[in-house]
Amino acid sequence: MEMRTADTASVLGQWPDGGERDKLHTMPPVSSGGAAADALRRPAHAINPTSRRQIEIVLSRSVGGIGFIFALQTLPAMASQLDDLKPGWGPFLAITLYSSVALVVVCTVIQVGIRVACTIVSAGYLAALLAWPALLMVPDAVLQDKPWLWYFCSIATSCAALAFPLRWAAVYAITAPVAYGVLRLTPAGGHADLLLAALDAVYAILLGQVVLIIIVMLRQATAAVDIAQSNALRKYAAAVRHHATELERVEVDSIVHDSVLTTLLAAARAETPKEAELAVTMAARAMARLTDAGVPVANDETVIPFARVSQRIRHAAEAFASPFVVVEKNVDMITVPLQASDALYSATVQAMVNSMQHAGTGDITRTLTLRSNSRGGCTIEITDTGVGFDARAVPSERLGLRLSIMERMESAGGAVKLRTAPGEGTTVTIVWPRPAESGPDTGVIGPAHPGADDPATGVDR
């Protein structure tokens, strides 16, 4: 029993009315110029451009598929003009252009060599336009219809939009139609009048520029999405680091308050050998707790039965000089995360310590209630019929309630409700998990026994 008493004292601390000795300077918040802020100021760029890759796949396959359909539509015109070309050159030209379009389709399906294949189509088409007059059987003869190369113009400009940088793609989208327009003015191109040749060239230019604009806009939009996603991930990582730093600060401050300072105060007030031995034991326990604080926290998915936490709390309550009346309801039905269980235990026993130290003397009833709540979590109430106090008058440097109980539970995903008033006793309600509606009401101070349901605390009275 003596060891158990020493263990409880070392873990929870004995916080006397020590005036200036009660003050504790907490760790400063993370500076805005720290690593988190540096991460937010880095140049924006996409870490993993998923959207850009996806849109490139869609664009390339669209150009390949539509280009192949356009190429099939040229077959009748191509077949009708084979006799107008020199023997062997007509089939060679047709096989070259059609096979290059087929190569684009294959490359877009396997997503390999797309730029090279599109470059082959664009360059091959421009070369075919330039060589067309020399390939005719009779160079000076007037072609009866427009050259079948006309139907490949949109395919070539679309492939150029995929393969070339923006500036060169825009130049090609003008150059190829203009070259075709010039060809239309010659006998090899049908000897069309200037207006008809100009209309064909302008139509091809407009179509090529529209395709280029659509591709550029989609690329820019997806690049912006990727950058925004990367920035969001970077900010989230910085927020996680900041949150981890804040949790560590709360944990260190709680340990210093609950163990280290209490041990020092107990050692300073030790007057008998037994008190000195207790101070030594408390110091050893405080050192052990500081060592344990450096051990990595278990995975968030690790859960334990709340009955184990309840048993630890019950043993701690029995160790006080004036034991608490312990009431347990449905505690066997609950599981809690390991990190939350530590916070529940420490916050509960700190509340009991505060009751022992500040509730006053005389005939005081202290009750400890542990039960399940409607959200699948737990609710713990520490109630006494003592003198109570005006919580708004407590100096900010007194950290027992604010740091060791409220901030500790908040960092573990819970909430704390305080009900007290001078002469009304004190009730501390600890709830896990935090109720959705508890934000503005958590920590509200009022009469210790309001006698009504209080949804802010998550307590089902």
UniProtKB/TrEMBL annotation:
Residues 339-436 form the Histidine kinase/HSP90-like ATPase domain. This is ATP-binding protein. Residues 1-37, 432-461 are annotated as: Disordered. The chain crosses the membrane at residues 58-79, 91-110, 117-136, 148-174, 194-218. The keyword Electron transport does not apply. Pfam families: HATPase_c. Keywords: ATP-binding, Membrane, Nucleotide-binding, Transmembrane, Transmembrane helix. SUPFAM superfamilies: ATPase domain of HSP90 chaperone/DNA topoisomerase II/histidine kinase (SSF55874). The keyword Acetylation does not apply. GO terms for molecular function: ATP binding.
